[in-house]
User: Fold these one by one.
Assistant:
Number 1:
Amino acid sequence: MTEHNFISKAYSKTLERGKVTWESPSNIALVKYWGKKKHQIPENPSISFTLNECKTMTSLTFTKKESSHDFSFEVILDGEKKDDFKPKIQTFFERIESFSPFLKDFHFVIDTKNTFPHSSGIASSASGMSALALCLMSIEKELGSEMSEEFFNQKASFLSRLGSGSACRSVEGDLIVWGKHKQITNSSDLYGVKYPFEVHENFKNYQDTILLVDKGEKQVSSTVGHNLMHGHPFAEERFNQAHDNLSKLIHIFKEGDLNSFIKIVESEALTLHAMMMTSMPYFILMKPNTLEIINKIWRFRRETNLHICFTLDAGANVHILYPEKEAAQILEFIKSELVAFCQNEQYICDRIGFGAKKIN
Ligand code: DP6
C-alpha cells in the first residue's frame, strides 16, 4: 500500500445533508512513538493496547454548501462551542484534503465528548482524531465509494495518523502495531495494523488503571517533543532500541512471559522521558508524585511478586498495567497506597479494548 491507494475516485452519489456518529477509544503504547519525519511518518515502530473505557464519541453533521472554496466547520465539546480546537482540525483537513476531496463541499458541525474528564491530562487526540476520521470515512462511503471493511479501517487509520500519529492505533484492537518492522510483514508507516502473531492467555483482558497525577496543561506539547528528536544526540540509538524491543515482545507475547514484558514496558516509559530530559531544550513532564508512585510499585512488586508495572505517556499520569488474574490484589494496593498521590484522588479503571464502534 502507498499513499496513492488512499486517494478517492470520483464519488457516484451526491448528498445534501446527514449525520454520522462514531465512538473511538484511546490507546496506551508499550513501545513508544517519539520522533517523526515529514507527513507524520514515525521514526520507529510502536505497539499499543487499545483501551476500552477512555473514549471519544463524535457526531459529524454535514450540510452541502454553495461554494467549495474553504473548509467550513464548527467544534462543540460537551455541548459548548470550542474554538481553540479549530486550528488543529484545520491542519488536519489541510493534510487529508487530497485523500478526502469532499471536505470543502460541506459545512460540518463536529459535536464531541469524552468519557474521561476533560483536562484530566489524558490525551484526547488519539480517540478524538480517530473518531473524526471514522466519521469522514462513513461519509465517503455514503457518497458511493465502494470498499471492503479492511480498506475502510486502513484508510480510517491512515487519516487518523495525519491528525495525530498515535490516533492511527485507535481504530481497531486489541494490540496494534504502527510503523514498519522487519518481522511484521504487513506493518506500515502509513497506518496501524493488528498485531498478527500469537498472544498468550496472560495478556488477555490486560488491565490499565490510570492514575491522574497532574491534570494541568502540559508545558511542552507532544508535537514539540517529537520535533526535538531531530538532531537529538541519542536519537539513532533510541530508534534502533524500539525496533529491538518490538522484536523481543513477539517472543514475550507468545510465551506469556510477564517478567520480561514488565522490563520492556517500564524501560520504554523511562526512555521516553529520558529523551525529553536529554533534548535541547530539555524538559521534565514527570511530577514528584509520578516518582512516588513508581517507587511504591517497585516496592510492592518486590514484596508480592505480582506482575504490576507502569508506563507513562508524554505527561505526569501513570498507567498501571497488570494481568486480569491479579486484578483484585493489585486494585486493593492501588486504592490503599497510590490513590493518595493523585489529584483529587482521581483514577480510571480501564482495560484492553477492541477498537472503534459506529453508533446508529
Ligand atoms: C508519548 O500522537 O500525540 O503518547 O503525532 O504530534 O499528534 P502527534 O503526537 P502524538 O504522540 C504521542 C506520543 C506518546 C507515545 C505513543 O503514544 O506512542
Number 2:
Amino acid sequence: MFPACFILVGMPENKEKKLRSQEWWGSNDDYYNFARRAWMRSEGFAPDAFHGKPVIGICNSWSELNNCNAHLRTVAEAVKRGVWTAGGFPLEFPTISLGELVIKPTAMLYRNLMAMDVEEMIRANPLDGVVLLCGCDKTTPAQLMGAASADLPAIVVPGGPMLSGQWKDRRLGSGTDGRKLFDLFRTGKLSEEQWCEIEGGMSRSAGHCTVMGTASTMTNLAEALGMTLTGSASIPAPDSRRLTSAEMSGRRIVEMVREDLKPSRIMTREAFENAITVDMAIGGSTNAVVHLIAIAGRLGIKLELDEFDVISRRTPYIANIKPSGEYLMEDFFYAGGLPVVMKEILHLLHRDLITVTGKTIAENVASAECHLPEVIRTVAAPLHPEGGTVVLRGNLAPDGAVFKQTAASPHLLKHRGPAYVFEDIEQMKAEINRDDLPVTKDTVLVMKNCGPKGAPGFPEWGQIPMPKVLLNQGINDMVRISDARMSGTSFGTVVLHTAPESAIGGPLAVVRTGDEIELDVPNRRVELCISEAELKERLEAFRPPAPKYNRGYGRMFLEHVTQANEGCDFDFLRPV
Ligand code: FES
C-alpha cells in the first residue's frame, strides 16, 4: 500500500534540469540523502510528494509580535495551494519578523539581521525557489536583500494594507492622522474618551499601514521592480483577492523555477531606475531611498543619491494618497493600483524589462484602467510636477540629505532661521513641551545623534514633534533637520538622512543654537551659515560620543553599518 522505496522503485524519472533540492535528497549513494528523505517523511509526506519536484520555500515573516504580518500564516496556506496545483512541493519556514512600532529602539536596527536570516535560510536549505511573505516596513526590503544575495527564483507576496481607519464620520490613515490627532490630544482639544475611541478605530483589520508609508511604498516598489504579480501590492489584507493572488504566486513560482527566472535577471539597474521613478510618482516614503540603495547593492548595482533627484525632477507626482495626498491605500487599490500608475508613466520607464510574470512591464500594465481619477491623477494633471522625494546638498550635508517636498509646507521650502539644537532625543523629549522653549515659527529645530551609528540604528525620529508652545499659537509646521529617518506616514518640512551623520563628525555635529540655517529646496541646498574657516575649526574640535554597544549584534552593527547615502547595509554583505 505504501511505496517501500524512495528512489529506485516506482518513482517517476525526472527528465528536467536537475533541481537544486536534489542535491539534498536525490541520490541513493549517500547516507545523508537517505536521512534527509526520512526526515521529510517524518512530517508525513509521501515520497512522491517531494521527489523530483521543485521545492518552494515559503519565507514567512509572520509573527504575533508584528501585527502587520500576523495574518501571513493564512496567506501561506493560499500560496501552498498554488504550489501543489502547479506540481511543486511547498515548505513554509519562519524568519525574524520586524514589527515597526513594536521593536525598540527601532526596527531598522534589525533590517540587516533579518536580511541575513532570509539569505542564509534560502541558501542553506533544499529550496529551488522561494515565495517571500512580507508587509510591515522592514520586512519587504529585508526579504528582497536576502533573496537578491541568495539569487534563487523568488516572488514577493505582500500581506496588503489594512482597511481604512474610521472614527465617527472621519476616515483615518495610520500614522498620518494619528500624529495630527495626537497634537490635538496633547493640547487638550480631544478628551481621553475620544482618544480611546480613536485608538479602537485606527487599525480595523489585519494588514500594514493604510497610507503610502514605507510598507505600502516598499510593496509597490517590489511590484515596480518586477518582483510581484501585477496588481498584487495594494490588495487590502482582508480582501479575498489577496489570497487569490497568493495562490497564483504559488503556481507561478513553480514555473519560475523551471524557467530559472532569478532575482538577478529581474532586478537589473534599469529595474531600479523604474522603481525610483515609480517611487516619485506615488509620493513614496523617504525610507525607500535607503532600502533601494541597499537592495541594489546586494546585486552589485551602485545607486547614487543624486540619481534619485535627477529622476524626481522629471517625474510627476500623481498618486493622491496620504501623507502627501488625500486618500488611503484602499482607495488606491479601488482606483486600479500600481498598474494604473505605471501605465500612466510608461514613457518614463524601461518598458521591456522581464518580471516574475514572465512578461514585460509594458505587457503587464497594458490593460490597466483608472476607476477613480481623483485618486490616481494623469501626467497631464499631476498633483505636483516633480516627484515626492528630493535630495539636498550643502555644507550641512556634504554626502546628501533627503526631503519629502510633497509632504512639506510650501511656504517653508525657502527658509532661513536660527537653529535651536537638541544634542540628542533625550534632550528633545525633556524640552519639547516646555512653555518657555525659546522658539518661534522661524526657528530651525536641529536634532543630533539619530543616525545609523549615533542612535544607533537610524530610527524614525526625524519628524521632531512640534513644540507645544508653537502648537498653542496655531503653528503646525516648522523646519526640522536631523540625521534620522522619518516614518513614511509622516509629513512636515523635515530634512532627513543628513550625511555624514553627526555621531561620526558630520557637520550637523557642530551646529549650535543660534546659528543661522538656510533651506532652499528648489535649489536643493541646506546650508549652515557660518564661514568655512569657522566650520573647519569646529569640525577639528569634534570628539565622537562613546559607542552605545560594546558586544553582540549591536557591536557588529556599529562596526559595519554604512551611512544613509550608502543604504545602511553592512559593508561585508555586498558582493565581492
Ligand atoms: Fe507595520 Fe506601519 S507599522 S506597516
